[in-house]
Amino acid sequence: MLQDAYGRTIRDLRISVTDRCNYRCFYCKPVHSQKLTYRAGIMTYEEIIRLANVFVHLGVNKLRITGGEPTIRRELPFLLKELASIPGVDDLAMTTNAHFLAKQAQMLKDTGLHRLTVSLDSLRQDRFKEVTGVDGLKKVLHGIEVAQQVGFDPIKINVVVIRDVNDDELLDFAHYARETGNIVRFIEFMPLDADKQWDHKRVVTQAEMLQRLQEIETLEPINRSYTSETANKFRFADGKGEIGIIASVSAMFCGQCSRMRLTADGKLRPCLFSEKEYDILSVMRAGCSDEELIDKIAEITKLKEAGHRINDPNYTYPEQSMSSIGG
Description:
With about 325 residues, this protein is α/β, with parallel strands linked by helices. The chain has a single domain, classed as TIM Barrel. The protein is built from 10 helices and 12 strands. A 12-stranded mixed beta sheet has the order 7-8-9-6-5-4-3-2-1-10-11-12. α1 runs parallel beside α2 and α3 runs parallel beside α5. The protein is globular and about 60 Å long. The model has no long low-confidence stretch (mean pLDDT about 90).
């Protein structure tokens, strides 16, 4: 069992397979240049599989594949099949922008992938293009529909809510959840934008979101499925539809965190907002045994912070943007 210095058990590993993405969302990826990792510096699938096996041996039972955009990496189904076949993996999920999902949905389902999460920050075509830099809303919505048809149902839709950008679409997304059966999760704007433009004033808090939504819709809280679940969940009073709110800024849930993150270039990050990350790929490539790898992972886990310091006046931005860290 993998535990940090505060007694939290690590059950969830998020694995970035690439730092590249076909979108350029301003809160995630630099508007101008971005230093990408050379191919030789990216973990191979064999290295990812080895690390996943070690983490599962240590008690991790949830794996999530992220990017960048994971679907642009070649031969992704091979990796997913291998990860799904590891004894002890109870939940294998992937986060995607869904741009290529219509063509890949059946193939992804056939690998054994359990769940899909789609990042979607606007239901308006012009605004979607402004946020992502790509005129792809119709393609994304179609991809979600196809994925539902092949068995990814419901799909979680992640919406980063930013004041004066898309906060006027809260009700539109609530109606979308009711109409499609997908679960919409509103996420407070976090300081991970590459151009360091984050400001507390742009954060729409959980309390404000609920106030706005409940002026129109009556919401009832849903009990968490497990202690470390990130979202506060709500159903509509008539039982049709579900939303969630991830309040990383206004109601931090660090005390129940069960996650570690693995970047595409093989760095372990104990927290999304960590100022430090730890090179595990070099340790592997130096020829370490699995026993030595276990010891190193346990050592890094003990360095997991008690909580993030977003609300600290002296908070320091991570050097990496969200696209480099992995969602």
